[in-house]
Amino acid sequence: MASLADEKYELITRRLQEVLGGDLIKAILAEGRTPKCYWGTAPTGRHARAAHIGYFVPLTKIADFLRAGVEVTILLADVHAFLDNLKAPLELVAHRTEYYKKILLAVFTSLGIPTSKLRFVEGSSYQLTKEYNLDNYRLCAIVTEHDAKKAGAEVVKQVESPLLSGLLYPGLQALDEQYLDCDFQFGGVDQRKIFTFAELYLPRLGYKKRAHLMNPMVPGLGGGKMSSSDPDSKIDFLDAPEVVRRKIKKAFCEEGNVDENGVLSFVEAVLIPISQLRIERAKGQTGADADEGAGATGSQRPFVLEGASEGTVFSIFRKEEYGGSLHYASIEQLKEDFKERKLHPKDLKTAVADAIVQLLDPIRQAFEKDEEWQKVEKLAYPDPNAKPEKKKKASLACLTVQNGGKNAKPADGAAAGEAASTEPAVPAEGAHSAAEAAKQQETSS
């Protein structure tokens, strides 16, 4: 019979593509301690809103962490967003950070994941401190250009003349593990090189080695990588039902092809896991997270039709004249039917589009009811065709600077469920000089 520690480890690691350092997590669980993890996202988005439904994969997985009693930190990596080839200009970083936070809170709530158990931290709340920067310099003194470039190859935008900022990116992400006081970092498999970079270099600074958990990446609707720069390759969290159906209709879904099929991959990585989550919750199987499902918005039904047999996790409606509806207990069964052409692409696309519309409905409704969120969106993603206004020169003061350390606390107004300020905070040590500058300006005018 499996021990409680074994059951928790199974929950923590199920449906992942790869686990590095699993023994570290097992040791913590065996000792009866509470594992701590962090998942981070950089609030970017040069082309429309960057947060897309591929995020359902890691966000749904966080429910398993909470069920296993893991303490979860969500990092809004504003400094990283700027460093990654200037994807987010400094003057927009604060607004995009707030936009991302609102999106994440709405998605977590729609999934029934209690946001009160999540700790939200903005990277700039500790990444601009003296202590962190000294560690960054220490890291720069031992990391080669080759290692830094290799580590960020899958994450940092690759250009012909790479900027120094892209080389700093992996080191900062490694240091985040120490300053967020985590036992493991969670991310997509595209982060693997950064994870192994952290495992190699953190011990060289005298810090402990962490475990790393990786979820599979959802391919784009065209079959390749889901890209924020290609509107038709991904679906935005706020896309209207007609937009969702149009994109799914255009998606590459060749009959019999199960290897390069973004629609089928979405069923496997998102829809079936969410169905399983809801089925288990209905049975009371939420482990340490007794609050899961409380306050959830939107339909919490699994993607299963009435009359389906026990164990079904995904159904596809078909008229009786075409053989009747199909019910699947696993992705393997669904893939086999598709490969043997027992399931037509049109029927699969219709079922997937219906499920996505259902998933996005509560998120879109939350946005439509939140005037502040709507204002933030306009500030975060201004109309590129609008005439530019003269603005003061941007500086790092645009990022919220707060005291932080190895156990950084959430920034004021950044706790789950609270609205973050869109006004950049002035560092305490700079308040006097700012006041003096204002006085001089008054005197001279």
UniProtKB/TrEMBL annotation:
It comes from Trametes cubensis. GO terms for molecular function: ATP binding; tyrosine-tRNA ligase activity. Pfam families: tRNA-synt_1b. CDD domains: TyrRS_core (cd00805). One of its GO terms (biological process) is tyrosyl-tRNA aminoacylation. Its EC number is 6.1.1.1. Residues 403-438 have a biased composition (Low complexity). Keywords: Aminoacyl-tRNA synthetase, ATP-binding, Cytoplasm, Ligase, Nucleotide-binding, Nucleus, Protein biosynthesis. InterPro entries: aa-tRNA-synth_Ic, Rossmann-like_a/b/a_fold, Tyr-tRNA-ligase, Tyr-tRNA-ligase_arc/euk-type, Tyr-tRNA_synthase. Belongs to the class-I aminoacyl-tRNA synthetase family. Gene3D superfamilies: HUPs (3.40.50.620), Tyrosyl-Transfer RNA Synthetase (1.10.240.10). Residues 403-445 are annotated as: Disordered. Its main location: cytoplasm. It is found in: Cytoplasm; Nucleus. The keyword Phosphoprotein does not apply. This is Tyrosine--tRNA ligase. It catalyses: tRNA(Tyr) + L-tyrosine + ATP = L-tyrosyl-tRNA(Tyr) + AMP + diphosphate + H(+).
